């Protein structure tokens, strides 16, 4: 596929360009010489995006104000595009808000892309959608693992990503629109930091460290952006799914140690791995007893899905995309701390 079609630069559409991941994908696509149309919302912060990529690169970018929930607006948007990169999604909010901002836009964009004969649709999904609660401790989580069949028992965000992929797969199969799915693990870096739910739960100033020996499936935002970029270029990968995690994954305990070394203070209560299930059982029981006035935030299902020690594979992305996470965890963590995140 490459970055040129004939003698013109590849024309791509990127959604979510103003986001944490999207702005890095944009910068890398512009560095490859692509012409990038960014679908932004009327209130999106385009000025800060322009500052982020720099004026020289910006000359090959354009922004189009659009509501992706509106199918008619999606039609013109994808015209003449070789590839659509779909990174926009809501990360929090109620289940209905998440569906409106993730599932509906995906459906509209894909329908428009198939009608306009777009060459490839790259969907940014999530590693969180696997049914990891069914896996044995320390087993390998790769692209062959099934998707969580009971996503409604997880958090609303994960559920919306499961629905998003379901809808995307259905449209791709029915319409023949070539699709590549990228499933990043926990994306970290400047602006966001590296403190994740996968390490523990933050309750005010307190951190409940869940387990501690389990690897955190991190991917540094620049590494991840490169994998997303490559998913639009490589020949012969239509229909593929790629998990994106870095090579040197730290454990939850190691992440906390790094934060402490960097001078960041946390009040930590360590919950040993074996006790996480008991804590969840107690939360479920107490929630039922108080007729859900105390919500069951922690359930045994979520504990099994989130904090079980697993191994993560990135070999398919390496072999088929030619991706190599070029920034190591240590280097990425240093850069993240230096950014003040
Ligand atoms: N962060 C992670 O750890 C992680 C892990 C796995 C997968 N992912 C996936 O990676 C993608 C990017 O995540 P991120 O962390 O970069 O998120 P982010 O910083 O919150 O950015 C989300 C982007 O989506 C846009 N957006 C949200 N709702 C929209 C809508 N209805 N119409 C158009 N644009 C909309 C936002 O635009 P505005 O600027 O207008 O708000 C923003 O550009 C998402 O698909 C997410 O599910 C993230």
List keywords for this structure.
18% strand, 341 residues, 3-stranded mixed beta sheet, alpha/beta, binds NADP nicotinamide-adenine-dinucleotide phosphate, 12 helices, 16 strands, Rossmann fold
Concise overview:
This protein has 341 residues and is of the alpha/beta class.
Description:
This protein is an alpha/beta fold. It has helices at residues 22-31, 46-53, 55-58, 71-77, 95-115, 156-175, 221-233, 252-261, 273-289, 300-306, 315-321, 329-338, and strands at 4-5, 8-9, 11-15, 35-40, 61-65, 83-86, 120-124, 140-141, 179-184, 186-188, 200-203, 206-210, 218-220, 241-244, 267-271, 311-312. The strands form 5 sheets. A 7-stranded parallel sheet has the order 5-4-3-6-7-9-14, sandwiched between helices. Helix 1 packs across helix 7, helix 4 crosses helix 5 and helix 5 (95-115) packs parallel to helix 6. The model has no long low-confidence stretch (mean pLDDT 95). Bound molecules: NADP nicotinamide-adenine-dinucleotide phosphate (NAP). NADP nicotinamide-adenine-dinucleotide phosphate (NAP) is lined by residues 15-16, 18-22, 41, 44, 68, 87-91, 101, 105, 124, 126, 161, 184, 186-187.
């Amino acid at each position: 596929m490459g970055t040129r079609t004939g003698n013109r630069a590849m024309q791509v559409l990127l959604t979510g360009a103003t986001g944490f991941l999207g702005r890095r994908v944009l910068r890398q696509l512009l560095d490859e010489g692509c012409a990038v149309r960014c679908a932004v919302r009327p209130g999106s912060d385009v000025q800060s995006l322009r500052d982020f990529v720099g004026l020289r690169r910006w000359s090959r970018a354009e922004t189009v104000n659009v509501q992706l929930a509106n199918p008619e607006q999606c039609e013109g948007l994808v015209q003449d595009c070789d590839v659509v990169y779909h990174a926009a999604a809501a990360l929090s909010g109620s289940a209905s808000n998440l569906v409106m901002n993730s599932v509906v836009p995906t459906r509209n964009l894909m329908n428009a892309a198939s009608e306009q004969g777009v060459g490839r649709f790259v969907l940014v999904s999530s590693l969180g959608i696997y049914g990891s609660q069914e896996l044995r401790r320390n087993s390998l989580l790769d692209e062959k693992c099934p998707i969580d069949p009971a996503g409604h028992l997880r958090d609303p965000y994960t559920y919306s990503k499961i629905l998003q992929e379901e809808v995307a797969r259905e449209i791709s199969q029915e319409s023949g629109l070539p699709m590549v799915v990228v499933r990043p693990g926990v994306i970290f870096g400047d602006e966001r930091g590296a403190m994740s739910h996968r390490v523990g739960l933050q309750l005010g100033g307190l951190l409940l460290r869940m387990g501690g020996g389990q690897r955190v499936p991190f991917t540094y935002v620049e590494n991840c952006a490169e994998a997303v970029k490559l998913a639009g270029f490589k020949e012969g990968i239509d229909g593929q799914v790629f998990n994106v995690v870095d090579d040197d994954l730290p454990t939850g305990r190691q992440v906390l140690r790094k934060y402490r070394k960097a001078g960041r203070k946390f009040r930590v209560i360590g919950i040993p791995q074996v006790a996480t299930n008991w804590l969840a059982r107690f939360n479920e029981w107490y929630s039922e007893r108080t007729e859900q006035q105390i919500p069951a935030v922690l359930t045994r299902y979520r504990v099994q899905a989130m904090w079980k020690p697993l191994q993560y594979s990135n070999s398919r992305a390496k072999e088929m995309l030619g991706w190599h996470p070029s920034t190591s965890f240590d280097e990425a963590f240093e850069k993240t701390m230096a950014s003040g995140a």
